[in-house]
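Standup notes
- DV: blocked on the single-chain target, sequence here:
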Amino acid sequence: MDVLRGKRVLVIDDSQFERELISTYLQQQGCRLYQAHDGVDGIHKARLIIPDLILMDADMPRCDGYAACKVLTQDPATAQVPIIFLSAFSAPEQRVQGLLSGAVDYICKPFDFDEVRLRLGIHARSRPQAGADREVVPEPVDMPSGAASLDSILFYSARIHLLKSLAETPSVQELAGQVGTNSKRLNMAFRTCVGMTIFEYLREERMKEAQQLLRNTSRPISDIACSVGFSSNANFSTAFKERFGVTPSQFRRQDVTRGALK
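- DV (later): unblocked, structure below
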């Protein structure tokens, strides 16, 4: 397929066999191949190369594909590069997670070479060449300038796990294990990226979600408390008042009054 000839393709996979397998095939199609062995390595090489296409595995050590995809799609230098997952994770929710993290496509392993070639061709044709006529900025737009790449990767990866369900979140130790680090290192990443500990960040997210539910739904306060991870109305009311200065019921009444006056 001529549309792939000369295209720079970055293959990110922790399996050397898988990297070599797909790289050898794509080289035969005229592509220029680059390889990375995990998400951290992939992010660094993507920023350096600015490839035309990225093929990425989902399940990798240090930094999974979902977290790496999130970082790359929020970095102005790589935001326009199409990312395609090539993963053994085939459940619908895993494919949806990949697309929600910013990927343009998701191919399940074991893959068919012709399918990979055709899908790459579609995305190569539909996107402008990566790096053309745009300024390259090395850091993600929403991270502090001093935030290290690994810090942002750990933060994004952990955030995905935390926000899956505010009602039932993992412990700090479990969360650290899920993203391949320890509790102290993960808390350091949160402080670097958002200026809070993991607990403080989770509490803030719970309060923001509760505020939106109180404002936009008529659900009972007890249901809202449960949905954001509080075992009792009293604990929820205390936490909400500490954050916003009013109880949940007072907030809801004030919001209704403001709406009526508009």
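- Follow-up: Residues 129-148 have pLDDT under 50 and may be disordered.
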